[in-house]
Amino acid sequence: MKSLRHLTFAAGTLALFGLPAGALPAGALPPWAQDLAVRAERLHTSAGAPIQDGVVLVRGGKIVAVGPAGTVQIPAGLRVLRAAVATPGLVDAHTVVGLTGYLNQPTDQDQLDRSAPMQPELRALDAYNARERLVEWVRGFGVTTLHTGHGPGALIAGQTMVVKTRGETVEEAVLVPRAALACTLGPTTHPGGDKSPGTTGKELALLRDKLLKAKAYRDKRAAGGDKAPERDLGLETLADALDGKLPLMITAQRHVDIANALRLRAEFGFTLWLDGAAEAYTMIEPLKQAAVPVIVHPAMQRPEGEAENLSMENAGLLRAAGLTIALQTGFEAYVPKTRVLLYEAAVHARYGLGAEAALAACTIDAARLLGLGQRLGSLEVGKDGDLALYDGDPFEYTTHCVATVIDGVVVFEGRR
Amino acid sequence: MLRTVAVCSWFLALSLAARAQGGMFDKPAGARSPGTHQGALAFVGARLLPVSGAPIDDGVLLVRDGRIAAIGPRATTPIPAGTPTRAVAGKVIIPGLVDTHSHVGGGWGADGSAPIQGETRQLDALDARDEGFQRAQAGGITTINVMSGSGHLMSGQTLYVKNRDANTVEQLCYRWPDGTPMGGMKMANGTNSQRDPPFPGTRGKSAALVREHFVKALEYQRKLDAAGADAAKRPDRDLAMEAMLEVLSGQRIVQHHTHRHDDVLTVLRLQKEFGFRVVLHHVSEAAKVADEIAASGVASSLIMIDAPGGKIEAADYDARGALELVSRGALVAIHTDDWITDSRLFLRAGALAIRNGLGEDAALAALTLHGARMLDLQDRVGSLEVGKDADFVLLSGAPFSVWTQVLETWSGGEQVFDREKPADRLYAVGGWGAGRPRSQAVCCMLGEEHGATPRAQEDR
After folding, report:
1. Does the pLDDT value for residue A9 go beyond 90?
2. With 60 as the cut, is the pLDDT of residue A74 above it?
């Protein structure tokens, strides 16, 4: 295992960083990948009806067979994990775990730098602690993939990335080094005093101005010549957003902030992921017209402040209206320092979303939203061997997660 | 003694007056029932989980005049002729939940001027119309110990609240026999109460300040005793000391925030030295000192949170604390610490304890009767027993399933939550307007005429 780790570091660094988001070279296997079989009394694949007494066969980290036990030949000598229920590994569509640490001291809170309201140049990659206890914690609840990075609280807080909850370095963990740009609208972005932004109008004025600057920067850089501006990491990042290469994930809870996010997108044409969206259930028509996916706030997020009108039924209402949704754990400032995706999905399920849709929203739908739907989020041949195993109904309060598997490797085993 | 008798008869008079005002079913059309608790009502066919005894399938729960008049199997529990009945087969009824530690109502007692302010009262700080009480009703909570925060060694007198729709804080109070509102004394150690002077900067200083305060109270007591009946020799009245006398006498239970194993032991050490009654609250590291806690005979009220950390003293939070304590015979309750956890999902906290090894019976007791014991209210609430307050929760199914919902909550014989009613449902699931207190026009304009005030006065 030790030697594997070194191998991993080298391979990860060399192989992943030069590649576009989410891609391994065709046919390449991560060096840590293993072979494994999982047999569950009930197998939820997120790709069709549940399979009674189902088997998933993983070879070299990839799923090579899925089906009823009678139809899948398990090679002799292969380790078989058994459980009452198995699902795809859970995909948290938005968290800050790894940048935020469990001790909640200034030294382990790297999700937000407040020195300026807009800092698109901040990379999640440089701030993620793969050994953070909260990563280990959520891994024990079946979470295999995190969309994590800079947090809410600044107009442009910084970049996000996608990792698997494995590895001891960010290089071992990362899937997509730069996934989105985390932006926030609403009163939480106001630093107070005489500092900007101090009003909702100022928020949008600052953002529009910055995006216009990025447009000019991009055009002048493209024109080249003596007048081409010097490289600017922030504007360069925003230029990618304007070119559709980098989504803006905008956290907006109130209807006015949601409307502002849609207006900004209409003006500049970037890809928008709406995040939080406590009052989205009052904005269904405009959201449908804009065809914007919503990463819905945690079901148990406190209904207070700008989220005072939050409804635990929001996710179910949005999905019933035909919107694309995914589930998340978001950001917590105090206790508990993180929410648990499995727990949140359970409450969403109970409050209108239903078990099947809730599972989809924290597996395949989240993976698709993140652009990883071909690789993750369901138990299908060719996909990563990422699974979560349970001793009962996954969403039942008293059920335990008994194992978590990433790329065929058992990364958690126990009773959590 | 004279005073007690006088106050009691005053209450009796009021309560008789309240009873003359009309029955449970004659509320005005469209109005929420604020204080109507009269008459009798039988719930028939549910599975009853009394906590004080074995489960009863196909049971009868008979409520009369705000109290439980009868409970038992349908076959052996007669329902008086003419009693209105509710058919609730397939449902489950549990006692109203008791939350031993909550911050609903938003009351702050102590301010930032000093670390010890036992003279401040939650009574003077609480907002009785806060929507938090509505959410707690939606979660099945009928009794709440509302406290100040933990940023002080002693942050003031807590208030034991009967959770109902109230206009004023007086309508919410449980009361001691002399008529004064019941409550505990909130204390804390560990990191929350360590700040710049005059607050302590270390654990040693924290304990020293507390010891000093208790010693001062003993001195005050000694002077009072020495003065005897001679008013001239008595020390001047001192609000902080008077509260401490209630602590020293055992009337006012110390409700003590403490997380880390060594902080827990410090509380036990101080308790042994001064003999006050105390409940340990939160107790993140209970599992580490379960033997010591059990041996002390001190009760613990635990929090169930979704992840460890959030602050240094909860870094080693271990959800198995409840199991470790109960298996050693220690008394265990569970609380919301609302807003840390959500009152609407209080049953979920019990389920998380079960997830971490606690038995279902112990978990239900931890949400009801055991909490009541920690508030000296066990003779009145916490279980379904004849003579106790008609505080109960109608559930759609087994208490600890995610798929179960609180359908109705009854507090002192009044229905305070009904999921079928849009106004109640709003507080249960959230939505537009859920962040605001309930409409006063609906809840309270009619309240005076329909018993809200007299009913509260009746609570002794």
Report:
1. no
2. yes
Instruction: Give the helix/strand (H/E) hosting B401.
Output: none
- What is the rounded average pLDDT for all residues in chain B? 89
Residues of B in contact with A395 (CB under 8 A): 402
Give the mutation candidate from B101, B302, B402, B419 for the A interface (greatest A CB count, under 10 A). Answer: B402
A398 contacts on B by Cβ (under 8 Å): 351, 354-355, 400-401
* d(CA B126, nearest CA chain A) in Å: 18
Rounded to whole angstroms, the Cα distance separating A138 from B307 reads: 9
Share of chain B above pLDDT 70, in %: 87
What's the complex ipTM? 0.92
**CB pair distance less than 8 Å for B309 and A340:** no
CB contact under 8 A, B429 and A311: yes
Out of A103, A309, A347, name the one closest to residue B434 (CB): A309
Q: pLDDT class for B437, splitting at 50, 70, 90?
A: confident
**What was the pLDDT predicted at A29?**
66
Q: Report pLDDT for A33.
A: 85
pLDDT score, position B106? 72
Question: In this structure, which topology does domain B97-374 adopt according to CATH?
Answer: TIM Barrel (3.20.20)
- Residues A404 and A165: their CA atoms lie apart, in Å, by 10
CATH code of domain A90-375: 3.20.20.140
Measured between CA atoms, the residue of chain B closest to residue A340 is B306
Separation of first and last alpha carbons in chain A: 24
Which residues of A are less than 8 Å from B430 in CB distance? 303, 309-313
pTM of the model: 0.91
- What is the number of other CB atoms lying within 10 angstroms of the CB of residue B118? 28
Domain boundaries, chain A: 33-88+377-416, 90-375
Contacts of B200 (CB under 8 A, 6+ apart): B115, B153, B193, B194, B206, B208, B209
Closest alpha carbon to A261 in A315, A311, A207, A300: A207
pLDDT in tens, B278-290: 999 999 999 999 9
User: How many CB atoms are closer than 10 A to CB B206?
Assistant: 22
Does domain B2-96+385-458 bear CATH number 3.40.50.2300? no
CATH 2.30.40.10 occupies which residues in chain B? 2-96+385-458
**A33-88+377-416 and A90-375 in the same fold:** no
All CATH 3.20.20.140 domain ranges of chain B, comma separated, are 97-374
The Cα angle at residue A256 between residues A252 and A262, in degrees rounded to 5 = 65
A interface with B, Cβ–Cβ < 8 A, is: 101-105, 133-134, 137-138, 279, 281-282, 300, 302-304, 308-313, 332, 334-340, 343, 346-347, 349-351, 395-400
Q: Quick check: A134 pLDDT over 90? A: yes
CB contact under 8 A, B310 and A134: no
Out of A300, A337, A400, whose CB is closest to B310? A337
B106 touches chain A (CB under 8 A): no
Q: What is the number of CB-based contacts under 8 A between chain A and chain B?
A: 109
Angle between helix B203-227 and helix B261-274 axes, rounded to 10 deg: 20
Long-range contacts of A287-293 (CB under 8 A, 24+ apart): A287/A258, A287/A262, A287/A318, A287/A323, A288/A321, A288/A322, A288/A323, A290/A262, A290/A265, A290/A266, A292/A262, A292/A265, A292/A323, A293/A323, A293/A324, A293/A325, A293/A326, A293/A369
For domain A33-88+377-416, give the CATH superfamily.
Urease, subunit C, domain 1 (2.30.40.10)
Q: Are A294 and A274 in contact (CB under 8 A)?
A: yes
Instruction: Tell me which residue has tokens 């953070």.
Output: A132
Residues B349, B85: Cα–Cα separation, whole Å:
32
